[in-house]
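A common beginner's mistake is to predict each chain separately and then try to dock the pieces by hand. The better habit, illustrated here, is to supply every component at once so that their relative placement is modeled jointly.
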Amino acid sequence: MFKSRIRGFLQVNGLRIMALLGALGVALPGMADLAAAKSLDDILKAREIRIGVNPTLPPRALFNDKNEIDGFEPDLAKALAEKLGVKLTLVAVGSPDRIPFVASDKVDLVMGAMSRTSERAKVIDFSAPIHSENYGIISLASKPFAKLSDLNNEAITLVQVRGTTAIPYIQKNIPKAKLLLLDNYNDRDRALAQGRADASFDGIDAVAYRLKIFPNVKFNIVPVPEWGVTYSSFGVAKGNYSLRDWVNIALYELHSTGVVEQLWEKWFLKPMDTKVPVTPYF
Amino acid sequence: MAYTLQFGQVTPYLGYLAGGAWLALQLAAIGFVVGWAIGLVCAAILHYGPWLPRKIVRAYVVFFLNTPLLVQIFFIYFALPDWGIVLSSFQAVVIGMSLNAGAYLTEIQRAGFNSIRREEIEAAETLGFSRLQSIRHVIVPHICKVLFPPLSNQYIILTMTTSIAAIFGVEELTGRTYNINAQTFRALEIFSIAALYYVALTLVASAALYSIGRYFFRIKGKVF
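With all components supplied together, the output reads:
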């Protein structure tokens, strides 16, 4: 019964199905072509470079008073586009979709705190580092801590954001400290400022910028490089070496002339904790 | 979907989750009892009180019914410290839930008071009941019978609402579920188990409320 129905369907629609499959066969290679990344030449020809930034991560990138995308990454993207002599188009990307954006040629370069990891490097290529990413201890200035082992004490409460990477480490290595887990970094900051906890161990790059909304509270921020320092880079489509190699040379110039550090201090309100070693070899 | 459920990774945390369920039960029970007491007083004021207290109760009820519980607790937890009142996570959540439940329970109990008909009291007087006797044998049984189902519903709703506490650092069932999820990444498994815990919490409460209702107030209902 069922078989005969299918046979009947094919007899009536067979030609249409063949035509549809044929059309797909023509269209698919064409679509693959569309997704190919733009080489350096293509970008120079188009007189435009598209760079992805994540405006939900201030001060890396944010929407300013005029509702335009602004911040450290947009400023650096501007400097890069100037060097290339083309128009800059900033594209807002999010954390989960920023890699697909560059892999499918929606942007030429992607920023948005692109930490280099071996896992990500299977999918996209990375430029030389733009900046370091540092962890450290944030506490009130009246109660400073010098190192992680100082926190291992029953009288100490650490405030952390639920589900973040430092928590398993704290539970294992700072087991005596009490944990207060809150929902997001704004709540974490406020809890620290209100003295609900003694310290927090987390990323410290954006902390000076974040904490400026508490002008009456003095904070102490101590880097803990033993935790491990990671580096953020420009992400480019896999195999787009013409663009990546040019970005590396431009980035060398921007590092060695102090532009990167200068933009960093402008937006992050403190020097980069671990300097990126600038070498002429990449 | 090429995903295999792996409960083995999350079963070591069942005891940890049970601790969270116990905390959720405490939050719901305290919130309900305090809210019920607030509601009883406020409903009595609305029904029998003078003008000014009535207006104050109305303002309280309108404010708490028309703002989200999350915002109310946020205010208690993060804004009050600016006036020097620092409450612990548990205290802030319990106060927020009680005040919120109090507003809902005021409305519910006010409806209960309103449901008593003048004829019932007149009939009791005609039969020669004293004031105390008519309260004991006519008014209270009537109010209980009318109020029991909506009060039970409110308790079940409150049990679900306890999950908000996780946002303010109370390690109840949902908070602990998130913690395990962040460690094992077994979201489907651990959230399914958390759902079972919530079902257990509410089913046990439903069964208990059903028995109480049936035994004391002769209310017919269904647990399932």
